[in-house]
Amino acid sequence: MSHLPPVSAPASPPMSILMYHQIGLYPRPDAHRALFCHIDRFRSQLRYLKLMGFEVLSLAQAHACLFEGQPLPKRSVVITVDDGYDDFREHAWPALQEFGCSATVYLVSDLIGKTASWLTDWPHQPQLMDAAAVRQLKREGCDFGSHAVTHPRLSMLSAAEQRREIFDSKKALEDVLGAPVPDFCYPYGDYSLRARDLVQEAGYRTATTCIRGAANLSDNPFELTRKAISYGDNVLGFAFKLHAKQARKGQAAVPDRIAS
C-alpha cells in the first residue's frame, strides 16, 4: 500500500531537474551518448543559465517549492549528476564553483573509490570518486544522494533485496559523509511501486527518475521527472530542453516481478 503524500498541483512557472553522468574531456562517443557531456559544453551550459537569469536550486529548495508551497523562481533548475564518477571532481565541480552553482551527485555506496562495474559492456569501467574526495567536496558545498548499494535494476529484485539497496546505501553514505543523505536516484531509472514506497519508508525526501519532463509535472516527491543532457547538446539544444515542458517519456514504476 502506498504511503505517498497528497499530489500537489503543478507549480508554475516550470522547473527543470537536469541529469548528467560523465562530464570531462571526451571524444565524440560512438555509443551511450546520453552518458557523456564534454566539459566545454558543460561550462557553456552553466554560462547560459547565468546569462538567462536561472536560479540553480538544491533539491531541498526544489522540494520546498514543488511540495511545500514555497514560491518558485521565474526561472530555475536543479543540477543532478548520476554515479559519482571521478571526472566530476576533476572537471565539473571546479566549473560549478566558478559559476556559483550547486549540484547533487548520486553515489553507489559499495563502489566508492572503485570502478563502475555495472557497465559490463564497456571495455574499461570508469573510475568513481573515493571517500576522501566525496568528503572534501561535501565540505566545499556539494550535495550527495544515494544511487543504491550496487546500482541494480530495482524492479528485478525481491522485496528484501530492494530494502537492502535502498536502506543500506543511505546508512553507508551517511557514515561516509557524517551528514544526512535525504535524496535517492533510481539506477537506470528502473523502479517498481514497492521500491518507490521503500524509498519513502527509508526516510528519503526525494527520488529522481529518468522520466523526461519539467519537474513540476511530477506527481510526487518520489517520482521526480528530469531532463537528460547528453554529448550532443550544444547551447541551442540545451536551451530547447530547458525551456520545453517535454512530454513524459521514459520508464515509470513497473509491477514487482518477484513477490517475495
Question: What layout of secondary structure does this protein have?
Answer:
Blueprint: E1 15-20, E2 22-24, E3 36-38, H1 39-51, E4 55-57, H2 59-67, E5 76-83, H3 86-98, E6 104-107, H4 131-139, E7 143-146, H5 159-177, E8 183-185, H6 193-201, E9 206-212, E10 224-228, H7 235-243
Parallel strand pairs: 1-5, 1-10, 2-3, 4-5, 5-6, 6-7, 8-9, 9-10
Structure description:
Helix content is 31%, strand content 18%. It is α/β, with parallel strands linked by helices and 260 residues long. Helix 1 packs parallel to helix 3 (86-98) and helix 5 (159-177) packs parallel to helix 6 (193-201). It starts with 14 loop residues before the first strand and ends in a 17-residue tail after the last helix. The protein has helices at residues 39-51, 59-67, 86-98, 131-139, 159-177, 193-201, 235-243; strands at 15-20, 22-24, 36-38, 55-57, 76-83, 104-107, 143-146, 183-185, 206-212, 224-228. Strands 1, 4, 5, 6, 7, 8, 9 and 10 form an 8-stranded parallel sheet that branches.
